[in-house]
Write a structure and sequence with these properties.
Elements lengths: L11 H6 L12 H6 L17 H38 L7 H11 L18 H14 L13
Protein name: Zn(2)-C6 fungal-type domain-containing protein
GO molecular function, one term: DNA binding
GO cellular component, one term: nucleus
Amino acid sequence: MSDGNRSLSACLRCRRQKLKCGGPSKIPCQRCRVSNAECVFVPPRAAQPVSAGSDIEAKTALLQRRLDLVERELRLEIENLRAEVAWSSHNSNTGFSPTLQSQRESAAGPVAETYTSSSDSPIITTQSEWDELYEFFFTNCRTVVSVIDDQSL
């Protein structure tokens, strides 16, 4: 079939059914006339300009910067967790280490006071301390560390 005979647009009915249409030069088109249906033509959409290469490069650069930032934050978090594991394996105290505490304060803003206990006295946590610890965890740690309740398993 030659491109000269091809219609540039089809009526809505022919377009929906993906059928050949007589085009806007013959209103109503043959199919709409036979089925006694309304023949509606909509002008073809103007072609969207192809995005310039610089736009794609800018988006790629932005995504690369975001990826670098996330990777840097992840490396810092891994270092902090490794330091915490190393510290907790060398110390029997149950409180936060001063170094980790200062790192957490700089990363998460003001933090609740450091909880430490001496090995002489038993560890008894009051309800208000639990509430404060829970609030601290919920605000600063819940996206990084999950808690599994063994009672619900």
